[in-house]
Amino acid sequence: MTPSVTPVAASGSDALFECIATRIPGCLELRPRRHEDERGRFVKVFHHDTFAALGLATEFAEDYYTVSRRGVIRGLHFQRPPMDHAKLVYCLAGQVQDVALDLRMGSPTYGEHAVVELTAQIGNMLYLPAGLAHGFCVRSESATLAYKVTSHYSAEHDAGILWNSAGIDWATSLPILSGRDRQHPGLADYVSPFPFP
User: Fold this and answer.
1) 65, 110, 147, 157: which is the annotated catalytic residue?
2) Is 48 a residue of the active site?
3) Domains and their CATH numbers in the chain
4) Which of 49, 103, 151, 186 is most buried by its number of CB atoms within 10 A?
5) What is the pTM of this model?
6) Segment 51-79, tens digit of pLDDT
């Protein structure tokens, strides 16, 4: 499926983000405008009015980041209701193979995934609505991945899908995994609490 591309502007004719639809409804790749000169680079990752115009979340409860080395796979993570959340992820350093897995019952892409290469150089981001699991594989020597989420972390609602149970063609055959990520249930065994809007 060929992604559609829609430039979106907060005001006037200056597009703040190039908006690229993935195969999963509501999951978007956003490419912000980059300003570069002899000093380096300036990138705006969030603009309230533009996100609102796109129908995306505008109220984020937490921001955090992870630093991981080459071959690390983190995921596939999400939070169950009522602490489920939309998520915006982007690379501050390095490059990752980023994955969104649709867990919304009734979705035309339930159980399917989208893959986007996120790089600090491009500055692109992936927006995941609630009901999608998220994971990534580090392709560079190391990578720093930043997250904005719309609910607070809740250990009681923290959940995941086993990384190799959803048919994802990961960028490594010998992943470095946490003990937790080795023990998530497989996709076929998971009973999803997420409805499709």
Assistant:
1) 147
2) no
3) 59-195 (2.60.120.10)
4) 103
5) 0.91
6) 999 999 999 999 999 999 999 999 999 99
Q: Is the pLDDT of residue 194 over 70?
A: yes
Element (H, E) at 143: strand 142-149
Q: What is the pLDDT of residues 23-46, one digit of tens each?
A: 999 999 999 988 888 998 899 999
Element (H, E) at 96: strand 95-102
pLDDT digits (tens, 9 = 90+) for 151-188: 999 999 999 999 999 999 999 999 999 999 999 999 99
> What CA–CA distances, in Å, run from 118 to 49, 82, 94, 124?
24, 29, 8, 6
Q: Is 147 a catalytic residue?
A: yes
Task: List, as one string, the DSSP characters of 28-93.
Answer: EEEEE-EEEETTEEEE----HHHHHHHT------EEEEEEEETTBEEEEEEE-TTS---EEEEEEE
Amino acid at 118: L
DSSP 3-state of 138:
strand
Q: Please, what's the b/e burial string for 73-83 (b: 16 or more CB within 10 A of its CB; e: otherwise)? A: bbbbbbbeeeb
Distance CA 186, CA 151 (A): 25
Q: CA 139, CA 97: separation in Å to the nearest integer?
A: 7
